[in-house]
Amino acid sequence: MSKILVTGASGFIGSHTCLSLLRSNYKIIAMDNLRNSSKKSLETVSKIANQNFEFIEGDVCNASLLRDIFKKHKITSVIHFAGLKAVGESVELPIDYFENNVGGTIQLCKVMDEFGVRVLIFSSSCTIYGNPQDVPVTEECPSKTPTNPYGRSKLMVEQILSDIAKSNKDWKIALLRYFNPVGADKSGLIGEDPKGEPNNLFPYISQVAVGKLSKLKIFGNDYATHDGTGVRDYIHVTDLAEGHIAALKKILNIDGIHAWNLGTGKGYSVMDVLRSFQDVTNIQIKYSIMPRRPGDIDKIFSNPAKANKELGWFAKRDLREMVNDSWKWQSKFPNGFQE
User: If DSSP codes are grouped into helix, strand and coil, which group holds residue 78?
Assistant: First the structure.
């Protein structure tokens, strides 16, 4: 039976996409090096979906391991999440980001090509747009000048994949440009589980609300936004996961490489999110204003019209549902999968 290889499967977006795939009756092989995630997320996915699947611990930079996987299993397509993803860390460790995000994708594509598997869904990012002059951002945003090594690594991969698609018409590639994935599965049994201090807003606020962290650090309150804090397009991780299935169905029926924004089209500031958390949890969340982080921008949110029209995909869950599901996960599992 044909299967989908999911790299970076135990991470936040990977695990939720695995769950959505299983709920839609796809067969998967899950792969992850567990550098920034826990195997428990996939064990929980298996329980929620009441389905077993094979998990392989390993790195996409390991070509011999990839060859073994493709020899053993009838892989027909790949959803590629594996990579490092923290903007601030990428400024400190650019070599790691290029080695993992760019080098790992090159190894994966080489092995896919060897085995004649040329259907790829790539986990890209809105960071490729840099600091856009105009929002909402369409896929045709002219700047494409990322402000940090993480974004540059994603743009490099997009450019590499574009050249691969031009070199061989058999490739079918979807570039999914995520905005800011948040929330958790409606069960509250899997969610965002960062190792160490969170880099992202939602898990940070959740950990303050649950008492794991003392206060929220707000990085900058002098941005050119309605309240001075950064504005982002937050999208529920389940909506995002469902976007991968929509993209997979579409890409199987068209040739070449195609990009789609996956976002809600709405921008919320850090303070907007903070107020929503306080409203949902009835907990006053302490915060302090910190200096801006390198690589951060004022505001960005999506124009998702292309994905709406071409994929028939829409983000259905609003900010309150994102907050509610995040809190459901964090309050059930204050220490995440490390309990």
Answer: strand
